Amino acid sequence: MSNYLREYQSKLVSADEAAKTVKSGDWISYGSLNAQACSLDKALAKRKDELREVKIWTLLCLRMPEVVKADPLGESFCCQSWHFSGLDRKIAKQDTPVYYTPMRYSELPRYIRENVEPIQVAMLGTCPMDQNGYFNFGPQNSHHKALCERADKLIVEVNTNMPRCLGGYHEAIHISEVDYIVEGENEPLVTPATTPPSEIDKMVARQIVAEMEDGACIQLGIGGMANAVGQMICDSDLQDLGCHTEMLCDAYVDLFEAGKMTGRRKNLNPEKMVYGFALGSQRLFDFIDDNPRCASFPVDYTNRVAVASANDRLMSINNAVEVDIYGQICSESSGTRQISGTGGQLDFVLAAYESRGGKSFVCLPSTYKKPDGTLASCIVPTLRTGAIVTDARTVAHYIVTEHGIFNSKGKTTWQKAEGIISLAHPDFRDDLIRAAQEQKIWSRYNKQF
Questions:
Q1: 418 is a catalytic site residue
Q2: What local confidence, expressed as pLDDT, does residue 1 receive?
Q3: Which candidate, 87, 177, 248, 434, has a CA 20 to 30 Å from the CA of 33?
Q4: Annotated catalytic residue: which of 171, 246, 322, 402?
């Protein structure tokens, strides 16, 4: 038996035993995405009546935590999320305490190392240990190495279904740094439902793809818009595209298999598909498993403006909730109700503009349907009360709806107002012009629609 296997056996414990390391008042971490340690979560939930005020860090929660099911009032366990998922919104809607923590994603590892409260216990799902004594973090490099460094106790829960994701760096933790090992129930990875592109998604995507050129380096998010852009690129004449992204999604697999994504023209990590975490179908997880074409990095590398912008022609594509006629972009809240987070959007809005030939696109439909079935405009005179400004008017580059595309850089307030109003649904433009006049950002030079 090798020394690593002996050390493994000495640190192997049951989930119930490992969960006993948590004390009342502790700050603990569940990691992010598919790194949620399911057996440890169940074991901790059993201790609800013994514990009080245990604060749990999460990021993009994909499974309903057992501690939330056991303690819906948050008397024993309270979740703090770095970025809300659909499940986090559901938890918050049922009045279970879950609190958003504002961040720029590129800064998260530093927050953990320098700014957050001391973390007593980190619980992370990982790949099985390899022959060199390393537990790979799987498809979520993100900030996990920083968590391991900051935590007083580190518990890994082995999951044989976790794909092994090559780096990069900080993609794994060595057994010498691990306190306890739990062999979990090997839950299948969560694969979010695919969102088919809407007609509006396709109209917006068509305008974005028209702005791209050969050798562009692509940053995409998830959902219908990403799928629409990916499919249109596959059907286009574009060649030699690269990947440098926060999140790797299925669209990148489509682009690679279509021969569009070679990465040959990238300045950094040529021919590598660089990402901070991956989320999508089992097909995506199979693609990244032990694939030397893919390189997993921590988010303070993938999202750092100086790093991402070193790739020429960086094309950043993200979504928004609403945009006002000043060019302020809200992408994370509906009024005061948190629905996602800043995440890496601001990082890539800045990076794309800094990139030579780069472009940042923030996309949204021009309208949304209210509960009574009537339409309301996503282009507004001012952001609604309490709405969070994700991208300031000074950093916004291209704003896109189904009605057009507008480059807001270098424009006066009256030019911004005119350009953004042109993106609104025609039924709302007159009201927006009247608002611009009342707000004194409409001039004699403005054209009428």
A1: no
A2: 58
A3: 177
A4: 246
